[in-house]
Amino acid sequence: MKKKKLLWILPLPAIILAILLWLSLRLNEDQKLFQKKADLLKAEIVTEETVTEIGGTPVEPLGNVVFFSVSDGTSRAKVYTGTGKKLSDAWKDAVRYSLKDLKKESYEPRWVRADVVSNARPVTAAELLYEISEIHSGFDYHGVALDPSFETALPEGELNGRHIYDYKENNVSISLMNTCLEEKGMETIEELPENMLEFDCIGWFCDENNSIFPLCHTGADTGRRKDITLDADYAANIIDCASSFLVDQVKEDGTFVYGIYPQYDEDIDSYNILRHSGTIWSLICRYRMFPDEELKKLIENTIDYMLDQITYDENGAGYIYEAKDDEIKLGGNGIAVVAMTEYMDVFDTDTYQDVCIALGEGILSQQDPEEGSYTHVLNSDFTVAEDFRTIYYDGECTFALTRLYSLTGDRKWLDAACKAIDHFIAEDYTQYRDHWVAYSLNEVTKYVDRQDYYDFALANAYNNYFRIEDRDRTYPTNLELLISSFETWQRMVDNGIDTGDFDVQELLDVIAARADRQLSGYFYPELAMFMQNPERILNSFMMRNDKFRVRIDDVQHNIGGFYLYWKNYDNMIAAGLDPHFKNDVQLGE
């Protein structure tokens, strides 16, 4: 027995030695991987052309400054700074600091981003705070050096990714900045220095496959990859990745993880059944493109949850009930009908026909049969709570009524939809820039051949070009509006219907500009790496102006727009779409 015991005890030192050796080799592997990525980036960056583009020595009299941001994909990027008179010297300095840190702990450099300072200018604390107060939330793309030697400097990704810039309070969070400085082993501060440097960067990114991507460095696209050909394949890949993110958000009970604030990996503690229903629609779009039996089961699970939220009045009319608010929202019925009719169309079934009809009756109960207008919110006892909540409900339900006509052939649904559209025209709903109006007009004109409907559908797009094209924020519903309008225009052309003086090239240019701008809301790894848990929000879509929020409806509307882009791509190309189109709108325009 003693001998056996000895056999168990003796190998322990050897086991410990083996573990230490493995860790040592692992660290060496991390350093080797980083060095390989750094060399690939260097070949792209430290060239005569780059030096010329950057302008020689942008930080006088210091010289050049290089930042390396390194992430393993599961945690926030670590940022290292290098300086030198020549760009190659600054590069070596940044590599040295990075390798030194990688030697201390095991940290796989899955993603490496290199940013080279392109210019720097003095800024006072008061000027910086004023700048933050004047710009859209999340849209300050400048880094800040607290000293002229860049010994304490934070690039834009750290400032925004850590919520150090507090746009809501028009302030810089000293506590969050100090947390960042402490992690870097730097001295903390009590207040912003009176005199600092504000700087811009030109960046490149190396991914896990060692592919190199130059990054945009001007305007609202700053920091994400550039030179993208947004063709049908690229749109399909975006849809595939973003919808995969949604699939991962589905829980066992059929609900979704509603949303995330990624700066600190915080779940959004709320729920909205209307947005739940819209997200189902996105998953069905994914199934159309990438059929998958497991996805079908997942979709049915989310529909089952939605069905459990239906309440019925004494006449059998159905209503989607929002339990947390104890109310019935008109739009809930509309989007639920759209989701289920989409499901039945894809899977060639009438499974949900009866419940869709019941929900349609609920919509009709909230419509004025003479004017075509709707009552928006009911109490749980079906009495009126609010006549109006949001303009979106009108288009959602009109779209749903037309879908019910397509499903059943019962003319009453189409007549009710036409009543609503007559109301839209009379009240000039083009002023609301509403994508649901575009969806409903595109659907109704499949069955109703009226010139005023077609004219109104096109006007809903061209009356809003000036409010859509040059927006620095992504506003994903704009792309849905534009391409739904294109579909209507295409039907007019195909059927020999007069399009008047409508300039389709102008529409296509706005579509191209907005599709490109939407990519700035996509969590590419070069943006996600500055958030607390990059892998969790990778390939999702965010709203930069709301603390980089990722919510199911944000992802849904982006998928909806790119799905329409993919679906209509060939027709748009034939009509004059340029997939290389780039609109370099500057911030604030």
Annotation field: number of helices: 23
Terminal Cα span: 82 Å
Please indicate the percent range of residues in DSSP E strands (runs of 2 or more).
Answer: 5-15%
Task: Provide the residue-averaged pLDDT.
Answer: 93
Question: Unreliable segments (pLDDT under 50, ≥5 consecutive)?
Answer: 1-10, 585-589
CA radius of gyration is 28 Å
Q: What helical percentage do the residues reach?
A: 40-55%
Sketch the major β-sheet: 7 strands, antiparallel
Task: Give the class from helix and strand content and strand pairing.
Answer: alpha+beta
Q: How many strand units?
A: 17
Tell me the overall shape: elongated
Could you give a short description of this structure?
This protein is α+β, with helices and mostly antiparallel strands. It has helices spanning 2-9, 11-45, 48-54, 87-104, 125-134, 156-161, 174-183, 232-249, 273-289, 293-307, 330-347, 353-365, 392-408, 411-426, 435-444, 451-462, 465-468, 477-494, 504-518, 525-528, 534-537, 552-567, 569-575, and strands at residues 64-71, 78-84, 111-124, 143-145, 153-154, 165-166, 171-172, 195-206, 212-214, 259-261, 266-267, 310-312, 318-322, 327-329, 377-379, 384-386, 550-551.
